[in-house]
Predict the structure of Radical SAM protein.
Amino acid sequence: MQIDAADLGLECREWTPVIDQHASWLAVNPIQGCPKKCTYCFLNQRRQTRVAPVQLHTPAETVRMLLDSDLYSPERAVALFTWTDVMAVASNRAYLAELLREFVRVNLPNLIVLISKCRFPAGTIEAITTAMAAGLRVIAYLSYSGLDSAIEVGVRHEQIRDNFPALHAAGIPIVHYWRPAFPAVTTEEIMTRVLDTAARYATCTMAAGLKVEPEALDRLAQLWPALATAPGVTEAEGVYPEAFWEFIHHTGDRHPDHPVFHTNSCALAYVLRDTDRFGVYGGQVCTTRNRCPQAQRARCAAAATATVPGHAAISAALSRRGLAGAAFDILPERRELVIHAAVANRLVSALTQDLGVRISVAGQGPDAYWSSGTSGARPLIIKEDHS
């Protein structure tokens, strides 16, 4: 069963491909639209907030689409429902339970990622643990940064906090998704409370700044006026209040054993006890920002001795991704591939996983996907004006 949005009179809403490549995982979106209205959410400018979620395909159809996609590979993480909150309404949760059963039926080897800032009910936790007992790998990304209902409209924040002990007790691995931060929540008290919760229950923290698309700038500047005048806001990998930036780079002072990552691919690798597949190891973020356990660094160091793909293998990978004939240089000592062309972020991300090297490109072209650290975008730190 495929639903045509036009048949439902939903043409005003923007829709994303059901199977797509994001910076560090495959995104699977058979349900789109969110009843919440978080002010910072990219779905606002796509007219997909404060709306009823729409099911575009059945779970069985979604599984077939995933396995048949030219983006699919069994070792890649799969993030479900990035254009809705899977826990927001009962119909989403019922769909998830059926989709998990379909994944088990086909023995899907991929890691499944569930991202939410809504309550995980007991029945959904049971559906997840049942799938895990049958061999499916699942982790939960719990979005929690201490924001209030003025910014995360419709979200019950006590339920976010309650998710941590509930999922931990059920044996579901947790990544604390600390994003985004606004100046209003960068007090020592709020940030310490968030960190303490994460360090107690989560496997690690993935910290990220605020993504600012050009269409969202005016709206976000109402909450953070400095965004309106700071240069480079819309091109940044993420925008960070200075106090938040300083705090998340000194979390070891309070919780020395709690890993904090600034690259999502590294958080995934750590949870899976896998190695870096995105060319992050040895780069600036790896050496100066990620708070990564020594055992994980040793794992990545051993993998980094593998031979860099040769000219023929790279040419073949570029051809498979629609970039045949693109000029490139290989820098083996840096495990880096430099492509002398504008390449969409989603393709850069796919190629990074195809080849296992860092990739630099000459811009992202007319890519609808936001600036990504995987594609070379840089963070922007804004000093707060206390005058």
